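URGENT: need a sanity check before tomorrow's submission.

F., can you look over the Histidinol-phosphate aminotransferase record below? I want to be sure the sequence and structure line up before it goes out.
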Amino acid sequence: MKISPPDYILSIKPYVPGKPIEELEREYGISGSIKLASNENPLGPSPLALAAIEKALSGLHRYPDGSGYYLVSKLAQKLGVAPESIVLGNGSDDIIGMLTRALLLPGDEVIMTDPSFAMYDITTCMVNARSVYVPLIDRALPLDTVAGAVTSKTKMVFLTNPNNPTGTVFSGKAFERFLEAVPSDVVIVVDEAYIEFVQDPECARAFDFLDNSRPLVALRTFSKAYGLAGIRVGYGVMPPYLAAILNRIRQPFNVNSLAQVAAIAALDDEAFLKQTLAVVHDGLAWLYAELEKMGLRCFPSQANFFLVDVKKDAAAVFEEMLKQGVIIRSMVSYGYPSYIRVTVGLPEENARFVAALKAVLK
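Structure tokens as predicted:
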């Protein structure tokens, strides 16, 4: 029997994940590779989270707590928000999907920047809504332009702060002007996956603007700064009435037991978070200096990754770096044909990246 899905489903460009390191090593005949492509924590997971996971293993025959009661309570206490304003997700992209499924109708418009996180577009297309793209300006998210793109059909806006893949941020003052310019019934989603790494004191933080006057959502994750990407846990903070809507469609066990206990423990691991930020910030400064010595232009970032203009075909540089056992990200598909994106690693990984890039560019 032939299956004929709707055209709007067939129009979706699938998310293309990277290959496992083991497979890349097999294909290229190399070993001891380092991965600086996916913005992961170079220190690994929080030690407190690992201990919590080990302690919880004997309970895997039980279903997870469907409400995430203890994690929600911990987050509410730490963030100073009401528990009923928090929605847990299997990664923050789970919540992105909940938002589009619960709030959008076919033909509604959703504004996002170009380039941006692929899941904004994918989840929009899944419900037959329309993605409206606003190009970045000098790699930054142009809030005034985004506000100007809002029409009577606009139902949702996705903003990423810090932005991926550029690492730029918008200020609190600029965000305040943006909120004043956009109708109060438009859902504003601020994806703050990398907010812990921000050093700019002027950077907007969506939590500062949360109230019941408009549907504003702040998304955060444990995947980056807390090193828990492999067990997928994120959360959204929003007005309680909006959280109640999402909880109507949220799968009852969308955050597994190990993810819940690990996230709770990670929130207490202040020493690990402090160490992570030091490694990333020191690594950024060192990498900027070394690459600039090579005559390359680095673009300052408020995240744990940054862009480099290698002045050559980035796809070719990516392939040659693979042969050196260093995995980075080509930005060709993002519209930056000579740029690569590099995640900050451990000091020895950063040094290996620089040495490999020198060899490749020669």
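My own read: The chain has a mean pLDDT of 96. The chain is about 40% helix and 15% strand. If you see anything odd, call me.
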